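Archive transcription. Copying these from loose printouts into the bound notebook so they stop getting lost. Printout 1 of 2:
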Amino acid sequence: MQHYAWGDRHFLPQFLGVTPDGQPWAELWLGTHPNGPTYLADGTPLANLTGELPYLLKILSAAEPLSLQTHPTTSQAREGFDRGVFADPHAKPELLVALTPFEALCGVRPEARTIELLRAITADDLADVVEAEGAGVALERLYHGDLDAASTVQACASSDRPEARWVQRLETMYPGDPSVAVTLLLNHVSLLPGEALHLTAGNLHGYLSGSGIELMQASDNVVRGGLTVKHVDIDLLLSVVDSTPLVEPVMRVIDGRYKLPEAEVQLIWLNTGENHTSTGHELALSVAGDQLYLAPNTKFVASADTFVVTSISTMAP
């Protein structure tokens, strides 16, 4: 269990059936990652049975916003690892499936929509740059201080648009942080339970509130740009961020399968009573709070709605 200041104090304790202790319960990790390895009920490390798993499964529960961040590609991770910049030589693609209503920032918004938003809230200085030079240039200029973020933040004070209200809230938390204005260049997404995000390398994102299941490649490579008291590296972030507009930030889900093709795994949603036979070393989480390890060829009947990690190659397309 990871206790971070942004964590919710109630969701994870209730999910696990334990009494809240007043601490922020932010993340539950399942996997073999050395920063949070899983142990079986008898104390045996999961890795003793599975070896090093290529994925990490989490439950994340946020009462406060997380940092604005992105992740490198595989080639960027390898090169950065060799230079001592990254913790490991792996990319960190991930997906998040909402368990509760969930708000997030996800990828650069298409420029026409961004210009419409900025004009509506009278953030014309930023709108002019996006219109003339593109969102990627606007993002760089905000982070380098070549474009004053203060006028954009001030414009939001008189708007009740959800994006502007978040700017107002984030400015009180991180006054003067250019990432506050940068959020206006990103897709603001509100997920219902069962809806999901797919975050590829370079996707600039930040989780704002809510609880969900995360599936990711087993990597710890994070590049933060702001909205945090942790270390930020603007030059590194700008070297890996992908400012290509993301037209559809909410991922398309077919038959309850949430695919993470970069890691060759997927999260499948089993309804109560459905059968499943594992094909490899699989981890599962039920909405009743059960955490399961399924050895290869284990037959399983879901006693409650359950999410299972399995290989993409073993499932029907």
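Printout 2 of 2:
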Amino acid sequence: MRIAVTGSIATDHLMTFPGRFADQLVADQLHTVSLSFLVDNLDVRRGGVGPNICFGMGQLGGSPILVGAAGYDFDEYRAWLDRHGVDTGSVRISEVLHTARFVCTTDKDHNQIGSFYTGAMSEARLIELKAVADRVGGLDLVLIGADDPEAMLRHTEECKARSIPFAADFSQQIARMNGEEIRLLLDGATYLFSNEYEKGLIESKTGWTDEEILSRVGHRVTTLGSRGVRIERAGEPAIEVACPEEEAKVDPTGVGDAFRAGFLTGLSWGVGLERAAQVGCMLATLVIETLGTQEYTLRRANFMERFTKAYGEEAATQVHTHLS
């Protein structure tokens, strides 16, 4: 399968302040705050939902097509993704804007002050999927992830107009979208991804019941945190897959992206929904054990050993053929 993943491309600049923000605030001067914090650490991480998902697919041996907009400072990040099996040929490079950036300082009480600069992400709305499809010889599935809202709407409309199967995955952008936009983005999707909280928010904002949404999408894929994932189809029994045992819980950031990477790769292998979800859960477990969204290493023997322990010999045999 030729799978394109659209979504934000960003870097995270994370800093640690050894004190407490609260100690620096003067109650009667909050209308004129002027503060500078001397931080101890700076951690620059590669991120953005598009690259996170594509990186995971590349780790599993896939060849995902990243679709998004980055700045003229993207060269080093592009080289990293290219080395890890990601097709970056359809990334739009802005001539005037930096790559999107999240800058955040965390104090000793884990309070945070952060800013998100959208930068080149705003140019994602200028990307045409037909050009992507023509370059790679057609598309079998497009995942429409959190990105510039106008880009998400354009990609969805184009998929519908060109009869390209698509997966709707609003994640972080669901909070700023209204009911009409969400209805447009999910109606006709082959897959609808969300976590449990987002599932309720989708129903609340659209005014559609769970049954009505299931009638409008092919599959509803709901991640359940430590309990795994549930896949629902209209008129069919739900499929529930548990998570493998964790060796450590280091950082949950990027876990949902890793699940999507494994699930989409499993679909491309043709191993079925349950097996695809198991691959997604196993990959997500590797991410939660690692600090950073693209810092894990997939060691195939270890992956298969843990996968077999979690899901059994039959499941492992089907997956091992493709992972090898």
